[in-house]
Every structure is written in structure tokens, then in C-alpha cells.
Amino acid sequence: MYSIVQLSSLAALLCTNVLAASIPSEYSTPEVAWKRDGLLGLHRKDYGGCKNTPTSRNCWTDDFTIETDMDEKWPETGNTVTYNFEITNTTLSPDGVAKEMMVVNGQYPGPVVEADWGDTIVVNVKNSLTTNGTGIHWHGLRQLGTNQMDGVGGITECPIAPGETRVYTFKATQFGSSWYHSHYSVQYGDGLVGGIIIRGPATANYDIDLGILPLTDWFHNPIFTVNAASLHAAGPPIADNYLVNGSMISASGGQYAVTPLTFGKKHLLRLVNTGINNYVHVALDGHQFTVVAADFVPVQPFTTDSLVLSIGQRYDVIIDACQTVGNYWLRVGTGGAHTKGLACDGPNANAANIKSIFRYEGAPTVNPNSTGPALPTGCHDQEGIVPYVKTTIPQGQPDELKLNFSQTAALGNLVQWSINDSPLLVDYSYPTLQHVLSDNDTFAGHQNVYTVGEKNKWQYWVIQQTPKTTPPLPHPIHLHGHDFYVLDHQANTTWTGDISRLASDNPVRRDTATLPEGGYLVLAFESDNPGVWLMHCHIPFHVAAGFGLQFLERESEIQQTIGNTDGFQDGCKSWTPFQTSSFPNGFPQGDSGV
Ligand SMILES: *[C@@H]1O[C@H](CO)[C@@H](O)[C@H](O)[C@H]1NC(C)=O
Ligand SMILES: *[C@@H]1O[C@H](CO)[C@@H](O)[C@H](O)[C@H]1NC(C)=O
Ligand SMILES: *[C@@H]1O[C@H](CO)[C@@H](O)[C@H](O)[C@H]1NC(C)=O
Ligand SMILES: *[C@@H]1O[C@H](CO)[C@@H](O)[C@H](O)[C@H]1NC(C)=O
Ligand SMILES: *[C@@H]1O[C@H](CO)[C@@H](O)[C@H](O)[C@H]1NC(C)=O
Ligand SMILES: *[C@@H]1O[C@H](CO)[C@@H](O)[C@H](O)[C@H]1NC(C)=O
Ligand SMILES: *[C@@H]1O[C@H](CO)[C@@H](O)[C@H](O)[C@H]1NC(C)=O
Ligand SMILES: [Cu+2]
């Protein structure tokens, strides 16, 4: 019989050995240079014959590996995966407190959309709500050539009217982890979210895929009510609780989420911040995370005790179940002040007790008694991220997007976030894509349309806030239709125009990154996807208050690129009568619409 001491030293030895495992060397090939319009990079040569197994996760199928630049190519599997979503109004109690929610197929979180890299995904979305439209955005999916499938009411579609169905069809050109959510005002905050898994290769090996672990702050009041109040309030709303994988305890009951681990195995866990207001820090007692992807971008593996995620961000991590068989807490901490305050977004009434359980197979069904160091705080992006496929970005001068904040006493202290003095406001019944299809280049004042005309060129933008005109808050910036490169970011500083500061050698690339408090974010993307693409702060209360803009990219090519627009046209035919005649007191848009 082993003593406790022997057991734990055995475990420690096993941990060391397992962590040392890496991509098998027999598959490593020399780095080669590649180039396409304006883009320079290095990757390894693709090769055939290597199969994706627990000891060769870098392989996928013939000619596609972790080295493949997924902006350039992806498998043509010829396969289609189909899901049927029905959106309903349902009472559920994720933390023991009953709440009227809006969910997919009666469940929360919604069903996980799973596909292989290169598959076509079809989702039939039926709106069975009575008094709201809806529309589903597939966060981070590039939607190459399928702008009308991006799911943003007032931009790429008219919302789906009650009783109507919309078919979203798009290709999984990327692989990794993400989530889908309603983009209809703040609706996703009431539960209209779910995970997306696109199976593909990885930069380190694992045995078991645990799937998505969604993390979100949680309001007991209806989210439209919380939003209406926050549009007239001086500080951020305080969330009542926080959910891990759709579950938490509260004074009214509920339960901690449980994730199974198998001793001696390495587990891939897909962390997603599906939240509403909070940055989160996450750590698992007694275990480290080996990070292999940030958003949809594979990264050089690195090991860390904890991770920070802004809303919309994802990390794929490998957890080595090499500790004594037992129960371990996953600890989740919000970004900053746990009371009402502006220093860092996201106070939470349950901040001191946000946890879930990781239970080894064979461990008793009890709460963990494990301990761990205090979680870091702060609302910023995770350090240490190096994209696996390398890219060099030429330096270029960014155009300025000036962020401003105002509260207007005459309008009941109405809060507005503006970009170049204009808070975003979309027209659900006349989306931007309809402008494009009917050759109408006259945009309404607050559509915040920025034209990108060039083909396959780098587009540089700086989002600037100043401590004098905006409360010093960090904002998670998300761009649709593209990954972007983070070239520079500074808190409490004004961009000087010095382009020698910009990162050019393999900068961080992802679809959501932080604009630091009081400062700026310089980003670049390649104009390789004709369409109308929203860029916005992913805090629903902020984008509802106007913090968003649209890139109208290569307008003259959009119609031809997207092809058949019947679904789009039918959507507007059924939406417009709902919006104009179902509300005796007028349609209650109430905010930016997205
Ligand atoms: C949800 O159901 C309630 C009760 O039937 C109704 O009052 C509310 O308008 C519905 N909400 C939506 C968005 O359909
Ligand atoms: C959506 O439905 C909620 C009730 O569930 C209502 O408060 C809100 O005004 C509706 N908003 C829109 C834009 O349809
Ligand atoms: C999340 O919850 C679902 C439903 O209970 C479960 O099937 C899944 O394994 C859980 N995921 C993780 C990572 O714990
Ligand atoms: C923690 O729980 C395990 C059972 O899961 C038990 O064997 C151990 O004695 C407990 N340790 C402490 C310090 O309570
Ligand atoms: C910000 O908005 C305020 C109020 O509308 C205005 O007075 C100020 O000039 C704006 N500042 C900037 C830098 O745009
Ligand atoms: C073009 O769009 C603008 C803004 O939405 C609208 O006011 C105008 O009526 C439209 N023009 C035509 C010809 O439809
Ligand atoms: C930015 O300025 C704010 C307000 O003056 C201050 O609280 C914060 O610590 C500063 N942040 C950084 C990263 O310097
Ligand atoms: Cu924001």
C-alpha cells in the first residue's frame, strides 16, 4: 500500500513526464517562406500521411496540419452538418433562481455546434418568441464570401420575425473553439448562447476532448430591463451571480458544475467567456493550463497557472490529470472591484464564491477541499501569446476612431458611447446589406459606416479613448469577418503617430482584444473578405449605447461574392410588417439594435 507521500511523489513524477510530451519530431519539417498579396510569413511545409492521434495532434488529414495557414486553405470535406434551433421563452433556474430566459431548444447553454474543419454548417433557426426578433451570430467564424450569414440584425439581415425561420449556411474554414449568440440588442444575456467546436489539429498533444466550458456573469432580472436601466446610470450594473457551464449555487439552491477528469490522461478544455460585463481570471487548483489556442488561432504552447479572458475571448488549454485522484476547484474571479465602481468593469454580487468542480474518475461525490493561490485581478489581455503560423505585418499609419462618452441630463442622463462623435444606431428593417444590394450609398447618420475599398491590403485602425472624455474602462473589441493583428496598445496614453512602435514580427492575432483603459488599440486586418462587418465593444451594455461601427469592405464585389440573396430578402419581407404593425405604441428598439 502506498503512503500519501509516495502517492503524491508518484503523481509529481507523472506530471513532469506527461508535460514534457510534445509534437513528434518525425513530422517536423523545415520552415518555408510564403507570400500572398501584401502578406509575408513563415510556416512549415504541409505533408501527407500523418494522422491525428493522441500523440500527433499536429496532424489532421492529408495535406492539412497545424502548420496550414487557415486564411489560405482548408479541407474541402464535402460534408454538411445540420442543426435545428428553436428559440423560445422558457423559465429555467441555472443557479436555483427561476428566470424567464430566451434559449435554444429549451436548454441552457444551447446545444454545441460541432463540425470538422472544412465542413459546411447549416443551422435552421426558428424564432418562437412572441415579442422579439432574433438572429444568431457565429462568433469568430470568418464567413468568407457569406456576409449575409453573419447574423447581425440591421447590418447583414433583418431580424428573424416571430414564427419565421432563417437558414444560416457557412463553411468552417477555421478550426478551434467558439460560441454563437443572439446579436439582437442585449438578448444573449438572457441565455441565447451556445458553444461551437470545429475539430482540427492542435499545437500540443491530448487524449480527451472535454468540450466547451462557457463562463458568464448572470443577472436575475430580464436583461432588457437591466440594459434599459444601465442606459441611464452612472456605473456598471452589478451582476447577481456567475455561471460556469450554465450552473452555480445561490441562496436559492443550484449546484456547482462538474467536469470529469481521468487520471493519467491529458484533457483539452475549451474556455469561453460568453459573459455580459466581466473580465474573468480562471485557475484550477493543483493543475496548470498548457495553452494551445487563443480564439481561433493556434499558439505556441505555453504553461500558466491562470488565464484572463475578456468577453468573447477563448482559450484552448490542456490539463494534465496527474494529481492525486480527488476533487479540485476551478476558481473564477472577476476582473476588478467587487463593488460598484468604474475602475474595472464587472462587479458581481457573488464574486467571492465563483467555482466549479473538476472530479477525477473514482473520486467521491463531495465538494473539493483543495486550495490554490489567490487569482490575479485586472482587466487586460493575457500575456505570452505567440501565433503558431507566423506572419509579418508591414508598418502603416492607422486611421483614427475616436471614442467618446456622454451622459445627457436633458435625456434622463442617457449614456452614449460614440465613435468619431456618432453613437451607432442600426435600422432593423433597412440593413446595411440592403443598401449595398440596392446601390444606395447614402447611409443614415448613425450607421457609422467606414469604407474599405482596396483589395487584399492591410487596413490599419487606432481606437483611441482619452481619460478626459471617457471613464477609464477597458473594452473588449471584436471584429466580424476577420481575425485582426494587435500592433500596439497602451493604457492612459494618446497614440502619437509613431509607426515604428507597431509590432510587425508575428504579432498577436485573434478576433477579440482589449482596448486598454484611457488609452488606445492599434489593429490591422487584411481586406480579403467583401462584406459589411461590425466592429464593436463586446460588453452588450456598451454596444447597446452606441459603441460600434461597420466596415463596408469592397462594396462593389459584395453582391457577386455572396450570390443567392433569397433568404436575406425573405427575411426582410417578413420582418418589416412585424416591426411596423405589431406594436401599437411603436417598436421598442430602445438602443443601437446590436
Ligand atoms: C415571453 O413570454 C412572456 C409571457 O408569455 C411574454 O410576456 C413576453 O413578451 C415573451 N417574450 C418574448 C421575447 O417573446
Ligand atoms: C424584447 O422583449 C422584451 C421582453 O422579453 C422587451 O422588454 C423588449 O422591449 C423587446 N425588445 C425588442 C427590441 O424587441
Ligand atoms: C458542461 O455541461 C454539459 C451538460 O451538463 C456536459 O455535457 C459537459 O460535459 C460539460 N462540459 C464541461 C467541460 O464540463
Ligand atoms: C480532502 O478530501 C479527500 C477526499 O476527497 C480526503 O481524502 C482528504 O483527507 C481531504 N483533506 C483534507 C485536508 O480535508
Ligand atoms: C466628447 O463629447 C463631449 C460631449 O458631447 C464633447 O463636448 C467633447 O468635445 C467630445 N470630445 C471629443 C474628444 O470628441
Ligand atoms: C438610402 O438610404 C437612406 C438611409 O437609410 C434612406 O434615407 C434613403 O431613403 C435611401 N434611398 C433610397 C433611394 O432608398
Ligand atoms: C489609468 O488611469 C486610471 C485613472 O487615472 C488609473 O486608475 C489606472 O491605474 C491607470 N492605468 C494604468 C494601466 O496605468
Ligand atoms: Cu465597452
TrEMBL record:
It comes from the Eukaryota. InterPro entries: Cu-oxidase-like_N, Cu-oxidase_2nd, Cu-oxidase_C, Cu-oxidase_fam, Cupredoxin. Keywords: Copper, Metal-binding, Oxidoreductase, Signal. Residues 87-201, 212-341, 439-555 form the Plastocyanin-like domain. Residues 1-20 form the signal peptide. One of its GO terms (molecular function) is oxidoreductase activity. It holds the Pfam family Cu-oxidase_2. Belongs to the multicopper oxidase family. This is Laccase. It comes from Lophiotrema nucula.
